[in-house]
Design a protein that fits this description.
Helices cover about 45% and strands about 20% of the residues. The termini are far apart. The longest helix is centred in the middle third of the chain and has 22 residues. Strands 3-2-1-4-5-6-7-8 form an eight-stranded mixed β-sheet, with helices on both faces. By secondary structure, the protein is of the alpha/beta class. Bound molecules: nicotinamide-adenine-dinucleotide (NAD).
């Protein structure tokens, strides 16, 4: 099999809930999307779905992003298949329909174009039956909302080539996902098997009148649900077993499995049960629309991933890996630094547009709030550090810079959504210290909005002590410092709080 193409254009077959989610994620990370659906009215739907996803996606990471991808729509499946570098199928969950459409699309797509299916439970061997070049087919099962949840289950069929799974995993990682290779095809893959087990018990408990839908959701969200975000059932049970871990756990609770606590067959979906489920969830929604609830869900999903990122665990680890890639790409794409100028270290250089004040950064007056200035200067330092080789690999050697002093001076206002840029000038450097001066300017008139003068200390993080930076890092910083030495000292550098402004 030819090695998969570099994916610049994602083709979507079917643009409903899941197709829309794929589109939003791919576009956000710079991939063009050709969305194909039998219904022309789905064009408006998918554009709306992408727009709805954007606020939450925009907050997921502050790492520099490439320019957004372009979205186009067609009702001509062939048009899409001939142009896409990777095709993701998201049409209704009906085996015959999927088989027919996958076969049709596979005849128009070049043989090295991977074709993947979002199917929740159909098996890849069945789906690839009538395809041309079936070795480039796999299941790539995502989770709703696709634009925020990183998991994608990859499953190959009898005729799938191992290289297809590997190449698909590379693509999904590129757009910020965690590809879980399901090694054997089974109906429902892995996650839906697990979810169905809980779902079945919920239906029994409601059917037997034991608990309401709200009580059962409480039984998850106040307890196990919090644990599950970062450690799965197995590792959690290992902890529950005390010093001897899983062995003790099985000895203690193993007998219950024989009672058993749970029921294996799902109950009959009677009208009464359906009514209880619907009325229960309506009561839980308490008048909130699906849109409102989606927004709430998106907001907490972003927040949870950012917290997990601090612990480098689960979805947070995936987010970190994505950010490392984005920073690395941004550093590689930047123009060679003109050492005579203060460094431009904003993502604008890469995005070819400017960073703008995000809605959640503003205070009561609609202006950027003070803590965000420190964050923006921190992001600028991050970009500078990566450029001189202080990256994840460097941090893994227990070395990093700490900010030990910051002085922000506010000179003008900047409002929500206003674009700006930051430039950073190196004022001083020795083997442990780096003295910098940032300027944050509005794009529309280049007005100086704020300055930030900072001292950064190079630290051996294991010993928690200041320590000399690596020679290579020092040499790169020194080249920039020497070039900046010829620049005029920034007005206001070194001034104390409250002194008259220049
Ligand atoms: N909804 C979920 O939570 C979820 C999660 C993971 C996977 N999936 C899977 O994703 C797939 C799509 O699910 P969905 O919820 O987005 O469904 P959906 O009904 O929202 O969207 C399906 C889309 O496919 C289009 N379509 C139908 N026939 C077509 C054809 N012949 N050619 C092109 N387009 C066609 C429809 O017009 C519709 O826009 C299913 O296989 C489902 O199992 C769904």
């Amino acid at each position: 099999m030819t090695v998969m193409r570099n994916v610049k254009t994602l083709g979507l077959l079917g643009t409903g809930v899941i197709g829309g989610g794929w589109a939003a994620r791919a576009l956000h990370f710079g991939i063009d999307v050709i969305a194909a659906d039998v219904k022309p009215e789905m064009e408006a739907w998918i554009r709306g779905a992408v727009a709805n996803a954007e606020p939450a996606l925009a907050r997921l990471t502050f790492a520099p992003l490439p320019p957004k991808g372009k979205l186009s729509f067609t009702t001509d499946m062939r048009f899409m298949a001939e142009r896409a570098d990777f095709i993701q199928e998201n049409i209704p969950e009906q085996l015959e329909l999927k088989q027919r459409m996958l076969a049709e699309v596979s005849r128009s797509a070049a043989p090295e174009v991977i074709i993947a299916s979002s199917t929740s439970g159909l098996t890849p061997s069945d789906l690839q039956r009538d395809m041309s070049s079936p070795e480039r087919f796999c299941v790539a099962h995502p989770f709703n909302p696709v634009y925020l949840l990183p998991l994608v289950e990859l499953v190959g069929g009898e005729r799938t080539h191992a290289a297809t799974i590997e190449a698909a995993a590379v693509f999904f990682k590129y757009i910020g996902m965690h590809a879980l290779h399901v090694r054997r095809e089974i109906p429902g893959h892995l996650t839906d098997r697990l979810q169905e087990a809980i779902w079945r018990e919920i239906l029994h408990l409601v059917n037997d009148g034991i608990a309401s839908t709200g009580e059962l959701d409480d039984a998850i969200i106040y307890g196990p649900g919090l644990r599950w975000a970062a450690m799965g059932t197995n590792l959690i049970y290992h902890l529950a077993g005390g010093e001897t871990g899983m062995r003790h756990m099985l000895a203690q609770f193993g007998p219950c499995l024989k009672w058993p606590w749970t029921k294996l067959e799902a109950p009959e979906l009677t009208e009464t049960l359906i009514d209880r489920m619907v009325e229960g969830t309506q009561a839980q929604a308490a008048g909130r629309s699906i849109r409102e609830l989606e927004r709430l869900r998106d907001d907490y999903l972003v927040a949870i991933q950012q917290v997990l990122r601090q612990y480098d665990i689960g979805a947070g680890r995936t987010l970190r890996a994505l950010e490392d890639r984005l920073y690395g790409d941004a550093a590689a794409a930047q123009r060679p630094v003109d050492p005579a100028q203060p460094l431009l270290v904003v993502d604008s250089v890469v995005r070819r547009e400017w960073t703008a004040v995000r809605p959640e950064w503003v205070d009561y007056n609609g202006h950027m709030t003070d803590s965000r200035y420190v964050q923006v200067f921190g992001d600028a330092m991050d970009a500078l550090y990566r450029r001189v080789g202080v990256d994840a690999a460097y941090r893994a050697t227990d070395r990093m810079f700490y900010t030990v002093e910051s002085h922000v001076v506010h000179l003008a206002e900047i409002r929500v959504n206003e674009p700006f840029y930051v430039s950073t000038q190196l004022l001083g450097l020795d083997e442990k210290r780096l003295h910098v001066f940032h300027r944050l300017q509005r794009r529309r008139d280049d007005a100086l909005v704020a300055t930030g003068e900072q001292m950064h200390l190079h630290v051996d993080t294991a010993a928690a002590k200041a320590a000399p930076m690596a020679g290579a890092v020092h040499a790169k910083l020194e080249a920039i410092r020497a070039a900046h030495a010829g620049l005029a000292a920034p007005p206001g550098a070194g001034r104390g709080v409250g002194q008259a402004r220049h």
